[in-house]
Protein: Alanine racemase N-terminal domain-containing protein
Organism: marine sediment metagenome
Amino acid sequence: MKEADRLKKNINNLKIEIDKVCKKIGRSARDISIIVATKYASARQIKLISNLGLRNFGENRADQLEEKYGMVGKGSIWHFIGHLQSRKVKTVVPLVEFIHSIDKISTLSKVNHEAKKISKIQKLLIEVNISGEETKYGINPENLRIFLKEALNYKNIEVVGLMTIAPLTDDFKLIRGIFRRLRILRDESNKDFNNMNLAELSMGMSNDYPVAIEEGATMIRIGSIIFK
């Protein structure tokens, strides 16, 4: 099977599964953004996927983002989904619509500074370490309120949602609990901060996206099941 045909088949199968999950819980599949994780994707694959109609691309590494940014046509939306190092903020901000992985107050300041230089309002999601794993980035859930309050001090950033990564496990009850906790945190934060609209929940990857959708995900970060 040609690579383009294989990618098309995988994308169609993914959309069918998303539609099934959404119908089961009474959501619209149009409310779910598929973010194609490009970490291991070649230039050719990214171009093919763009031609197949997917418009949201997520990259983990700033240097790779620079290389891949120009590979897709106008109308594509880039997301930075990896850990954002302070020294890479200057590279990332001009290229992406969304940064999913803010987990330090100092990074808020740096992003705001770079966005201000190019007259941009940078959309951000706060990464929350719901699982408490030491190997994962993200803020402690208990610190979210302080974090959001600090974000209100900056004019060139807009916090639009929350992000989390579930453990790599077959325990879907555990995974569901983590995604549900993020949704509850988002809902509570929207009540606490009337001047914020935390509409986005970035959660769910190739192994657990159906559970994430059931628990309210608006953005799912998908790589391996598209490229397999």
